């Protein structure tokens, strides 16, 4: 019996393949970015950005790498992606791509072309950062990136940049493909996507973040400006820190004071008052004194309450503007419907079918508490002699 088993194994060995999807490295390239846009003729354009392979010199030094973009067109995203091979001889490794641009033309009309592609494609990551182009096509944005060296500006660098902006400035909250899909299929919440534009003010075209695209159902219907994005950061950001608060002319002799948000916690809870649904927003922030422009020693126990109150009012104003814009666009980017479902499920069962009519009229209250902590920095202003 043992010999028969060995004989069967030996017969089956030539039929067994160790690597069914083996791909030689010389036949592949790493995709930094993949993007989708809608052309004027109604077809979809699929873009992929990679780096141009450059051989080393005889001294062993490598020449500067450059970005290149390949495009394919078709009636669907899959067809457009496969048509890229009409112009490009290598296979893209999509799993390494961590950035995705969605063209404004496509985002304003129908995002289902993108969502369907992401759901069904096993080669893309759900951790890819998503951006919407504004006042520019995807092709124009990638052209600007291609003109710069890989180390200074590329689609991959954009994902690092948006994380730095959220941490250091406290707005333009990043969103990944998995989160985008989740928000688009979950009742009671809508996604918001950072926008990129082409800045020509300096004489050289550069990619710049500007606003956040507001989604409702399957398309973009408006955007948040910088102040509204700061309010959104306090309400919906996953990381609970980051941001600056600049207080102008707090006291005589001080032009401005800059505070850093070291941590915060926000809660949105539905309340039923007089049979009407209301939303209570509570935010707790811890701040650190960062710098002042002036010669008065404002960082003192006597002025602590003044600075905390000014910071509280500024945060409250940012959050209020975000709520007003969301209700004006009638897009529940705040997740109030989801919060109602969690804490008042019976109420949600009644208002769910009418949420589009109810959301824009829900009153809200905003409570902010700001606490200034010891910063371990100098307490005194610089004194000129």
Order of the strands making up the biggest sheet:
4-3-2-6-7-8-9-10
What percent of residues are in strands?
25-35%
Structural classification: alpha/beta
Q: From the alpha carbons, calculate the radius of gyration and give it in angstroms.
A: 26 Å
* Spans where pLDDT lies below 50 across 5 or more residues: none
Broad shape: globular
> What does the largest sheet look like?
8 strands, mixed
Number-wise, the strands total: 14
The averaged pLDDT comes out at 85
Please count the helical segments.
Answer: 12
Helical content band:
25-40%
Give the CA-CA distance, first to last residue.
100 Å
Number of domains: 2
- The H-and-E topology, N to C, reads as HEEEEHEEHHEHHHEEEHEEEHHHHE
Outline:
The protein is of the alpha/beta class and 385 residues long. The protein has twelve helices and 14 strands.
Structure characteristics:
GMP Synthetase, Chain A, domain 3, 385 residues, 4-stranded mixed sheet, 12 helices
Task: Describe the overall structure.
- Helix content is 31%, strand content 30%.
- It is α/β, with parallel strands linked by helices.
- The strands form three sheets. Strands 4-3-2-6-7-8-9-10 form an eight-stranded mixed β-sheet, with helices on both faces. A four-stranded mixed β-sheet has the order 11-12-13-14, sandwiched between helices.
């Amino acid at each position: 019996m043992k010999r028969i088993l060995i004989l069967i194994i030996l017969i089956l060995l030539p039929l067994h393949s160790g690597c069914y999807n083996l791909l030689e490295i010389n036949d592949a390239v790493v995709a930094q970015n993949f993007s989708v846009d809608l052309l004027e003729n109604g077809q979809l354009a699929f873009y992929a950005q990679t780096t141009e392979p450059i051989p080393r010199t005889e001294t062993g030094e490598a020449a500067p790498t450059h970005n290149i973009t390949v495009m394919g067109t078709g009636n669907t995203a899959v067809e457009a992606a496969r048509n890229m091979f009409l112009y490009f001889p290598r296979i893209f490794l999509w799993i390494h791509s961590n950035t995705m641009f969605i063209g404004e033309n496509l985002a304003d009309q129908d995002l289902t072309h993108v969502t369907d592609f992401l759901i069904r494609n096993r080669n893309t990551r759900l951790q890819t950062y998503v951006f919407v182009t504004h006042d520019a096509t995807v092709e124009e944005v990638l052209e600007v990136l291609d003109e710069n060296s890989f180390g200074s500006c590329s689609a991959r660098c954009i994902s690092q940049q948006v994380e730095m902006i959220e941490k250091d400035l406290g707005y333009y909250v990043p969103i990944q493909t998995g989160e985008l899909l989740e928000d688009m299929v979950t009742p009671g919440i809508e996604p918001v996507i950072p926008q990129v534009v082409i800045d020509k003010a300096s004489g050289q075209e550069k990619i710049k973040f500007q606003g956040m695209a507001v989604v409702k159902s399957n398309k973009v219907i408006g955007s948040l400006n910088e102040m509204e994005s700061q309010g959104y950061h306090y309400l919906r950001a996953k990381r609970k820190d980051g941001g600056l608060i600049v207080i102008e002319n707090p006291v005589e002799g001080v032009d401005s004071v800059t505070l850093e948000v070291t941590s915060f916690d926000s809660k949105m809870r539905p309340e039923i008052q007089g049979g009407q649904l209301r939303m209570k927003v509570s935010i707790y922030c811890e701040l650190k004194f960062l710098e002042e422009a002036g010669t008065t020693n404002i960082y003192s126990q006597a002025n602590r309450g003044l600075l905390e109150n000014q910071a509280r009012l500024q945060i409250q104003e940012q959050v209020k503007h975000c709520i007003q814009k969301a209700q004006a666009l009638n897009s529940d980017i705040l997740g109030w419907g989801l919060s109602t479902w969690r804490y008042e499920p019976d109420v949600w069962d009644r208002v769910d079918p009418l949420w589009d009519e109810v959301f824009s009229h829900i009153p809200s209250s905003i409570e902010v508490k700001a606490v200034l902590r010891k910063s371990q920095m100098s307490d005194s202003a610089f004194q000129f002699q």
